[in-house]
């Protein structure tokens, strides 16, 4: 199975002409220019990304990628791996945070199961694209084989295609996988040339001793991996099924002209891999929130990203991105529905 073409071909560029038209409209709405702050820029960006004079975030597609991690053998998580499969069932039954948020937003929610230690039965809204029960232990060997990497990235690309088929105006990727903050931290350390002590955090709730152990595990993995910084090689060596799936989805959405609202630490690391593979992907990314996970700030800085919210969240699942959707909807409503000075018969001349 070859990698998706989005891995090898640059994505399209946003529509600069429509960005200019949206910018011009913002200048003649009944408000002082710039007075709505970042809401103005969001509307301009969405107009360019969606290729529309009337940007909209009415149709949102959420794909949560799930996968277990072999590095859990090193005792790096406060929760057992059985939780991953249990949470897939919780997503499907509507009880998870992202399930509630998706209902509130009227968003399409799906779960992509790429491999869990626990058994997952057939469930509504769950795509079973199991690669293996778990990735390999990244502290001892490559986490994914080349074939597994291809399968995971193709599963992500297929999720992007489903979003396109559903005429989504915005894509949100979420993650579920016990141990995935260890994998994400290792990826970030390798790609950003940072020390584990700088980026490794508590994940699901480790104490200081647990965080120190986790950092040592990441250091062992980095030493095993060596100096190769080719993004997909790093992803195969240090990643996980769900992070590779998210990377494929982000690349696939950019290729299909679908804006991506990036969630927290895990998804931002997948976005970092995607932009290292195809730099033009960065144009298609909006950033929702600043995670409480310590490594997220460094990843955001590397992506030149200014997130919209800082609510001290660190749940994953796409939850931080879902919370930010109403801001995008507000930006679009103001852009599309406010009167211009001419429409309202209001003077736009200072002192008039």
TrEMBL record:
Residues 14-26 have a biased composition (Basic and acidic residues). GO terms for molecular function: nicotinate-nucleotide-dimethylbenzimidazole phosphoribosyltransferase activity. GO terms for biological process: cobalamin biosynthetic process. The active site is at residue 317. Residues 1-13 have a biased composition (Pro residues). Its EC number is 2.4.2.21. Coiled coil: none annotated. Pathway: Nucleoside biosynthesis; alpha-ribazole biosynthesis; alpha-ribazole from 5,6-dimethylbenzimidazole: step 1/2. Pfam families: DBI_PRT. CDD domains: DMB-PRT_CobT. Keywords: Cobalamin biosynthesis, Glycosyltransferase, Transferase. It comes from the Bacteria. Residues 1-32 are annotated as: Disordered. It catalyses: 5,6-dimethylbenzimidazole + nicotinate beta-D-ribonucleotide = alpha-ribazole 5'-phosphate + nicotinate + H(+). NCBIfam families: cobT_DBIPRT, PRK00105.1. Catalyzes the synthesis of alpha-ribazole-5'-phosphate from nicotinate mononucleotide (NAMN) and 5,6-dimethylbenzimidazole (DMB). Belongs to the CobT family. HAMAP family: CobT. This is Nicotinate-nucleotide--dimethylbenzimidazole phosphoribosyltransferase. The gene is cobT.
